[in-house]
């Protein structure tokens, strides 16, 4: 069990809550063994139905995972004053409670990094309170491993959908100008606060991710929920040895809505257990044009989305609140 220090509870009143729910875990999450001969088909089916699935036999060394988690836990154990030396986020760095610039808040503290080493400034490393070069080395090793996993999944998707070339999706993440990022989230336990209201605090509010694909790993603490097609929220069983794959907005567009970008959220745990999660957001280069792939379109099928660059969509997405339909501005209306 990991028990970490809690962020200061001042101004907690502005963090949203939801009605306390039973902690029954949803058993219908697709679990895909990447060595399974049917894995490609199963991945595409999961992307269409859920926009979300778990992968096992993923090939990411657990030593790479555990070393970074240990260092992350050590960071979040520091005093608030020490952690604040790595912030405020602009957009990268340490942040607490405030998520983005548009008023969204949650019971969370985090570290956000660009996954491009060229964008990590020396000054930001020097402001990091504990062994900055060691920490960045661990982040880089982890990101490299999960990027490879994400690219493998994307190439399996291309194979199943008969998209040529095979790297149509994965090249976006492998490009040296890929606008990908990496986030470490810490959701402290808050039993006293939740006992007062009989409700669950929102750790991270409902949203979809704007990139191409996200790869999530967490410790063995509950909290992640996804929304099914009918709008029902279900709890995802934690699994510290596996990875969860999210379809993101850009992949939904490129498949012309065949895949669904999964809406998800995190609820704070009301026990004494902290949740630590690591998320790699695989994004394209800023100049990349995002549009439905013509090779996927059937005869007479119309594009559901206007073409846009990743830079245009990113700017638009980060002007909105978390829960808004970010793709709405880019959906085509009848006659367009």
UniProtKB/TrEMBL annotation:
<dbReference type="Pfam" id="PF14226">
    <property type="entry name" value="DIOX_N"/>
</dbReference>
<keyword id="KW-0560">Oxidoreductase</keyword>
<dbReference type="InterPro" id="IPR005123">
    <property type="entry name" value="Oxoglu/Fe-dep_dioxygenase_dom"/>
</dbReference>
<comment type="pathway">
    <text>Hormone biosynthesis.</text>
</comment>
<dbReference type="InterPro" id="IPR026992">
    <property type="entry name" value="DIOX_N"/>
</dbReference>
<keyword id="KW-0479">Metal-binding</keyword>
<comment type="function">
    <text>Catalyzes the 2-beta-hydroxylation of several biologically active gibberellins, leading to the homeostatic regulation of their endogenous level. Catabolism of gibberellins (GAs) plays a central role in plant development. Converts GA9/GA20 to GA51/GA29 and GA4/GA1 to GA34/GA8.</text>
</comment>
<protein>
    <recommendedName>
        <fullName>gibberellin 2beta-dioxygenase</fullName>
        <ecNumber>1.14.11.13</ecNumber>
    </recommendedName>
</protein>
<dbReference type="GO" id="GO:0046872">
    <property type="term" value="F:metal ion binding"/>
</dbReference>
<comment type="similarity">
    <text>Belongs to the iron/ascorbate-dependent oxidoreductase family. GA2OX subfamily.</text>
</comment>
<dbReference type="GO" id="GO:0045543">
    <property type="term" value="F:gibberellin 2-beta-dioxygenase activity"/>
</dbReference>
<keyword id="KW-0408">Iron</keyword>
<dbReference type="Pfam" id="PF03171">
    <property type="entry name" value="2OG-FeII_Oxy"/>
</dbReference>
<dbReference type="InterPro" id="IPR027443">
    <property type="entry name" value="IPNS-like_sf"/>
</dbReference>
<comment type="pathway">
    <text>Plant hormone biosynthesis; gibberellin biosynthesis.</text>
</comment>
<dbReference type="InterPro" id="IPR050231">
    <property type="entry name" value="Iron_ascorbate_oxido_reductase"/>
</dbReference>
<keyword id="KW-0223">Dioxygenase</keyword>
<dbReference type="InterPro" id="IPR044861">
    <property type="entry name" value="IPNS-like_FE2OG_OXY"/>
</dbReference>
<feature type="domain" description="Fe2OG dioxygenase">
    <location>
        <begin position="177"/>
        <end position="284"/>
    </location>
</feature>
């Amino acid at each position: 069990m990991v028990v970490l220090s809690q962020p200061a509870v001042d101004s907690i009143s502005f963090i949203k809550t939801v009605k306390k729910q039973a902690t029954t875990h949803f058993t219908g999450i697709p679990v895909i063994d990447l060595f399974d001969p049917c894995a490609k088909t199963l991945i595409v089916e999961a992307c269409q139905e859920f926009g979300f699935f778990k992968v096992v036999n993923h090939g990411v060394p657990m030593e790479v995972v555990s070393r970074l988690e240990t260092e992350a836990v050590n960071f979040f154990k520091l005093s608030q004053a020490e952690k604040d030396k790595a912030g405020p986020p602009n957009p990268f760095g340490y942040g607490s409670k405030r998520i983005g610039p548009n008023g969204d808040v949650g019971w969370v503290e985090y570290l956000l990094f660009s996954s491009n080493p060229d964008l990590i400034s020396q000054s930001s490393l020097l402001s990091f309170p504990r062994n900055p070069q060691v920490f960045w080395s661990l982040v880089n090793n982890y990101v490299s491993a999960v990027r490879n996993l994400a690219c493998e999944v994307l190439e399996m998707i291309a194979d199943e959908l008969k998209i040529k070339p095979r790297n149509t999706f994965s090249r976006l993440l492998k490009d040296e100008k890929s606008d990908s990022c990496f986030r470490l989230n810490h959701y402290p336990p808050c039993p006293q606060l939740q006992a007062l209201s009989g409700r669950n605090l929102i750790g991270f509010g409902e949203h979809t991710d704007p990139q191409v694909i996200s790869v999530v790993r967490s410790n063995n603490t509950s909290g992640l929920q996804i929304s099914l097609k009918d709008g029902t929220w279900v709890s995802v069983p934690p699994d510290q040895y596996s990875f969860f794959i999210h379809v993101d907005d850009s992949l939904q567009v490129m498949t012309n809505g065949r895949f669904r970008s999964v809406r998800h959220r995190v609820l704070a745990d009301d026990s004494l257990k902290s949740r630590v999660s690591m998320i790699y957001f695989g994004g394209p280069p800023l100049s990349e044009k995002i549009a439905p792939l013509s090779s996927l379109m059937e005869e007479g099928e119309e594009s559901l989305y206007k073409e846009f660059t990743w830079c245009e969509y990113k700017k638009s997405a980060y002007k909105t609140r978390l829960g808004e339909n970010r793709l709405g501005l880019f959906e085509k209306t009848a006659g367009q």
